[in-house]
Write a structure and sequence with these properties.
Layout (H helix, E strand, L loop, with lengths): L2 H79 L5 H83 L3 H14 L4 E5 L2 E2 L8 H9 L4 E2 L6 E4 L2 H4 L1
Parallel strand pairs: 1-4
Antiparallel strand pairs: 1-2, 3-4
Helix pairs in contact: 1-2
């Protein structure tokens, strides 16, 4: 096989490997991000429940104040009973007393209802806090695993970068420029194998003459359809 073609194949494989490292790192980060998002969602729910509990307690306080006012009103009505001079005043006072008692009853029911709501929300809050604690422990464990995985990927990437640099030190500049021009538009498929007499970049069938040149591998051959550099994989690579 032509030496330049061998170097191009190696360089292309290095570049393909390098381009795959970042997605691998992002994939590891995504594993952690899922748990972090879940924890953030739980925290948001906890904050929301705190606000709801504060609102319910505020309503309870208002009802307590209103209840105290009603009790004072009943005491005043009781005092007025001593000074009643006719039946009309008595009926009016009795009506006022009945209304006040109904309002007291309603206020007590409302306070009980608000207390039940607070109790339920505090139970939900406790459950969420426990769930958040578990999630944060999971995040710590996953963070360690992700950091280790990223470290290993970075080591692999550094090895590939080193091998690529060593290859480029002895690379022909004209061949490299030729490769880089194709790589601008073909990305990681600048150098592709031929399988079943088809270019594995554009998947178009190549003619017999070009295919014969690819098999000989004496020169650098471009796909007549897309311009990518072609090579024939040996039987081991194909397997």
């Amino acid at each position: 096989m032509n030496k330049y073609l061998q170097d191009l194949i190696k360089l292309s494989k290095f570049d393909t490997a390098i381009s795959m490292f970042e997605p691998k790192i992002e994939n590891e980060k995504a594993k952690l991000a899922t748990f972090v998002e879940t924890a953030a969602s739980i925290k948001a729910s906890i904050n929301s429940i705190y606000l709801e509990i504060d609102d319910v307690k505020s309503k309870r306080t208002k009802n307590n104040i209103h209840l105290a006012e009603l009790k004072t009103k009943l005491e005043n009505i009781a005092k007025k009973n001593k000074d009643i001079s006719n039946e009309k005043e008595l009926k009016a006072l009795q009506l006022e007393e009945e209304i006040a008692k109904e309002q007291i009853s309603f206020a007590n029911e409302e306070i009980e209802r608000l207390d039940n709501i607070t109790k339920n929300k505090e139970l939900t809050l406790k459950e969420l806090q426990e769930k958040l604690a578990v999630e944060e422990e999971d995040i710590k464990e996953i963070q360690v695993a992700v950091d280790n995985a990223i470290e290993e990927i970075s080591k692999e990437r550094n090895v590939v970068y080193q091998d690529r640099s060593e290859l480029l030190e002895k690379f022909d500049n004209k061949i490299l420029t030729f490769y880089e021009k194709i790589k601008r538009w073909a990305k990681d498929s600048a150098v592709v194998p031929v399988k079943k007499q088809a270019c594995y970049g554009c998947y178009m069938k190549i003619n017999d003459k070009t295919y014969a040149e690819v098999i000989k591998a004496e020169e650098i051959v471009n796909c007549p359809h897309c311009g990518r550099i072609l090579y024939k994989e040996d039987e081991i690579e194909e397997a």
